[in-house]
Specification:
1 helix, Jelly Rolls, four-stranded antiparallel β-sheet, eight-stranded mixed β-sheet, mainly beta, 153 residues
């Protein structure tokens, strides 16, 4: 690795795509459960939201539960996605939780903070998307989860 590279070799860093959600139906949200015998150090989540032309401002968020009852983390965008736009969303660590970077516009790229450092997720942890004012015609892509697989000790 050297200066000026656009990407790093994730294998050297131990970072990889850990999994992907099912493709949510139009107007539906995503829910993903960490499988049995797995433990993640989550560093990022990526997805694309295509908004219908119905008027509304969508505020996407990611919520994580490890005990099935309370939310351990809620990372909500502070910038709404508006009618008729396609937006590439990336929730990532090393940003303040909920801090939203980017400018909304056609084919926008938005980054939302997940906090500092990786998020340890045990088997059975549930990651969900919640989008304020989601419309029946809005469509999320598959969500991709990025990080490291942790070893059980």
């Amino acid at each position: 690795m050297g200066f000026g590279k656009a990407t790093e070799n994730w294998d050297e860093l131990g970072v990889k795509i850990l999994g992907a959600s099912a493709d949510p139906a139009a107007g539906a949200e995503m829910a993903y459960t960490i499988g049995t015998g797995r433990r993640w150090l989550l560093t990022g989540i990526r997805a694309i939201l295509v908004c219908a032309v119905a008027a509304a401002n969508r505020l996407p968020s990611i919520r994580i539960q490890t005990d099935g009852a309370t939310y351990d983390l809620v990372a909500a965008s502070t910038v709404p996605q508006t009618t008729g736009l396609t937006c590439y969303w990336h929730w990532k660590t090393n940003n303040v939780v909920g801090a939203t970077l980017g400018t909304m516009g056609a084919a926008a790229f938005m980054t939302v903070g997940l906090g500092i450092g990786g998020i340890e997720l045990p088997a059975g942890a549930v990651i969900t998307s919640i989008t304020t004012d989601i419309n029946a015609g809005d469509n999320w892509s598959v969500f991709t989860f990025i990080g490291k697989e942790e070893m059980f000790i």
